[in-house]
């Protein structure tokens, strides 16, 4: 019996600490594990007893790359608990800050975390020695995304301006307009990015996934919508816990999510794209078609292309919001606490981010549940690993190892996000 | 140069990748041989400069930081997690027994330490850069300083002073908004008061802060003990000055 193991003790170019092990016996993959050893940080435990106004700032510290996603899910969940709906310009500004985060996070992934895999470099700094212009373009597009977050939120990592009911301070029309020229340049550069990414060598690999994402009646989803899947799921966010469950596996510090009775599912850009292609702007759809993408795509290695398409959309949407903007009369609407449970899911760059809070009449948090995208994708990531290795088992060990890493980097996993939890319930046999 | 990460949100090391204009010039001056978020390269050292993001929360990490110190000429801890234990240091205020029972309820966590501690609690640190997250310009100054073999020039006065310099109207005096600016280490660029919000102390305590006096000011604005406790027990909860102040409010909140 011939046994072979592929091990990556420290995954590079992902956010957080993880490792891979794939075990092969007699030419068959017998086990594929994504091991997450990022230390748990217990956010759900210490949110208890904090004020409902603090959740946005505290949960943003789960992730430095997608703090806006945490802020958006937290404020929407609290507003849901308190029966408040934020509309008009304030709602548009929330979409705008989310555009900024999609841009910086996706472009970081495209140029610095993922492209080096396709071109055979250890990282973007090494890649810049041969492709300085390309890396520079990526950095400048990313900078335009960060400029949106910084203007809206004060800084791009852990912005300070998001609050329940809206913002502490809203920008003037002129301040927002000052971004326009830069965003127009960056939108063109994003279209160019998709064209360039389409020339990368994609492994031939497709799978019949269950994609899950938000879907909104007329927008590409950021903060609102129903949870839908390509296999018949269609529910309100309040029904999330009835349909999704998390289980502990021995090899990971992050819980694995499943659809009850069905198994793993795929969230993130590829899921959003497959479920919401018709909601993309014409320019983004055109960029997708020019790159050879149809309304459906099941090759996870093409996630780099789809991220590019979403970046085009985010610039388009940001420019639309800025052009239509009228400063609101008040930077926030009042949100008064009441004893209730609030639910929200928003679309973080890496996928659906679910928050649920129970608060009392003073707004003190009694309990919190947070399900980040990377927990939800873990099962699918491991299934991909298994199948990619089966398909490419004849590659030399070093190339196969790299291909396994690339398979995980397709997902842009955010490992710090996935290990923040505390499990309080004890399961007895 | 090497960049390391322990328990954190990755935001402080991401700050380096957010140096869109400076990253490639830095990489031209400094050879980045270990930076897992950015590269597969796996340089074994020794390193001239190690930047360390995150706090120590597991026995494995407590051992790893010793090894990193041995292989580094200069070691700089970056951000609230690495300099004060970070938001995850909120566990440090729990009843230890309660905490241990939680740990044993889920045996997978037995390896989690009871406390989240800063890097300096484990090894000698050459410089501590504050902030949750750190400031990009300050990070560049730190790298530049160690390249040139000098100490970084980074102010340690309060946010309040920079707020005055910026010409902001004081949110506490003019609007009655509680603000931690008078006791908080500067460096964020006085963001919160510039956005009509009170400072929430993400850079931790300044040098010799008078937290008791500030608490008195907040009380006059109607803040109760429970809220004061939460204010000091946040992203830098285990920084000494904030820890002591929060403990004072804990006693008042639960007398006896």
Automatic annotation (TrEMBL), chain A:
Q: Which residues bind Fe cation?
A: 66, 417
Q: Where does Ni(2+) bind?
A: 63, 66, 414
Cofactor(s) annotated in UniProt: Fe cation; Ni(2+)
Keyword Metal-binding assigned: yes
Swiss-Prot/TrEMBL keywords? Iron, Magnesium, Metal-binding, Nickel, Oxidoreductase
GTP-binding as UniProt keyword? no
Q: Please state which protein family the record places this protein in.
A: Belongs to the [NiFe]/[NiFeSe] hydrogenase large subunit family.
Question: What is the protein name given in its UniProt record?
Answer: Ni/Fe hydrogenase subunit alpha
Query: What Gene Ontology molecular function terms does this protein carry?
Result: ferredoxin hydrogenase activity; nickel cation binding
Q: Which residues bind Mg(2+)?
A: 44, 370, 420
Q: Which InterPro entries match?
A: Ni-dep_hyd_lsu, Ni-dep_hyd_lsu_Ni_BS, NiFe-Hase_large
């Amino acid at each position: 019996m011939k046994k072979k193991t592929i091990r990556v003790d420290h995954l590079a170019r992902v956010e957080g600490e993880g490792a891979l092990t794939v075990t092969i016996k007699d030419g068959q993959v017998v086990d594929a594990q994504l091991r997450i050893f990022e230390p748990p940080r217990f956010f759900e435990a210490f949110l208890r007893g904090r004020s409902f106004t603090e959740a946005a700032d505290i949960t943003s510290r789960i992730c430095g790359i997608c703090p806006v996603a945490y802020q958006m899910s937290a404020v929407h969940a609290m507003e849901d608990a308190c029966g408040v709906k934020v509309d008009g310009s304030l709602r548009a500004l929330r979409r705008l800050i989310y555009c900024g985060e999609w841009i910086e996070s996706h472009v970081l992934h495209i140029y610095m975390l993922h492209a080096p895999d396709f071109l055979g470099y250890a990282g973007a700094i090494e890649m810049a020695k041969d492709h300085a212009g390309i890396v520079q373009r990526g950095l400048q597009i990313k900078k335009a995304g960060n400029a949106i977050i910084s203007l809206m939120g004060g800084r791009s990592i852990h912005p300070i301006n998001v609050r329940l009911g809206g913002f502490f301070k809203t920008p003037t029309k002129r301040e927002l307009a000052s971004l326009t020229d830069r965003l127009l340049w960056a939108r063109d550069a994003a279209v160019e990015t998709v064209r360039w990414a389409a020339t990368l060598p994609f492994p031939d690999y497709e799978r019949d996934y269950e994609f899950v994402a938000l879907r909104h009646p007329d927008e590409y989803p950021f903060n609102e919508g129903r949870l839908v899947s390509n296999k018949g799921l269609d529910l309100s966010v309040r029904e999330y816990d009835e349909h999704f469950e998390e289980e502990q596996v021995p090899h990971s510090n992050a819980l694995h999510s499943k659809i009850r009775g069905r198994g793993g599912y795929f969230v993130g850009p590829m899921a959003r794209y497959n479920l919401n292609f018709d909601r993309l702007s014409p320019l983004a759809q055109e960029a997708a078609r020019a790159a050879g993408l149809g309304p459906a795509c099941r090759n996870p290695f093409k996630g780099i292309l789809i991220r590019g398409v979403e970046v085009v959309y985010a610039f388009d949407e940001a420019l639309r919001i800025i052009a239509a903007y009228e400063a609101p009369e008040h930077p926030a609407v009042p949100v008064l606490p009441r004893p209730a449970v609030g639910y929200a899911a928003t679309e973080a760059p890496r996928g659906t981010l679910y928050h649920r809070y129970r608060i009392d009449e003073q707004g003190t948090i009694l309990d919190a549940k947070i399900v980040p995208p990377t927990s939800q994708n873990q099962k699918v990531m491991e299934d991909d690993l298994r199948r990619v290795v089966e398909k490419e088992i004849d590659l030399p060990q070093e190339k196969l190892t790299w291909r396994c890493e690339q398979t995980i980097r397709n997902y842009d996993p955010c490992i710090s996000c996935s290990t923040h939890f505390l499990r309080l319930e004890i399961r007895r046999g | 140069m090497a960049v390391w990460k322990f328990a954190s949100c990755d935001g402080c090391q991401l700050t380096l990748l957010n140096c869109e204009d400076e990253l490639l010039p830095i990489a031209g001056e400094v050879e980045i041989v270990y930076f897992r978020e950015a590269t597969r390269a796996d340089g074994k050292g020794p390193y001239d400069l190690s930047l360390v993001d995150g706090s120590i929360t597991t026995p494995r990490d407590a051992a790893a930081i010793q090894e990193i110190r041995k292989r580094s000429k200069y070691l700089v801890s970056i951000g609230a997690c690495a300099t004060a234990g970070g938001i995850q240091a909120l566990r440090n205020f729990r009843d230890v027994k309660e905490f241990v029972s939680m740990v044993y309820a889920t045996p997978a966590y037995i390896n989690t330490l009871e406390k989240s501690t800063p890097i300096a609690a484990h090894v000698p640190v050459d410089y501590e850069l504050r902030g949750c997250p750190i400031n990009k310009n300050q990070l560049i100054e730190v790298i530049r300083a160690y390249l040139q073999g000098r100490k970084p020039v980074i102010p340690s006065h309060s946010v309040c002073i920079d707020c005055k310099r910026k010409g902001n109207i004081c949110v506490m005096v003019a609007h009655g908004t509680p603000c931690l600016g008078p006791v908080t280490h500067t460096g964020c660029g006085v963001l919160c008061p510039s956005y009509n919000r009170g400072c929430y102390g993400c850079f931790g305590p300044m040098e010799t802060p008078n937290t008791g006096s500030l608490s008195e000011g907040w009380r006059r604005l109607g803040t109760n003990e429970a809220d004061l406790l939460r204010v000091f027990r946040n992203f830098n909860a285990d920084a000494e000055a904030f820890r002591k102040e929060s403990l004072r409010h804990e006693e008042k909140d639960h007398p006896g």
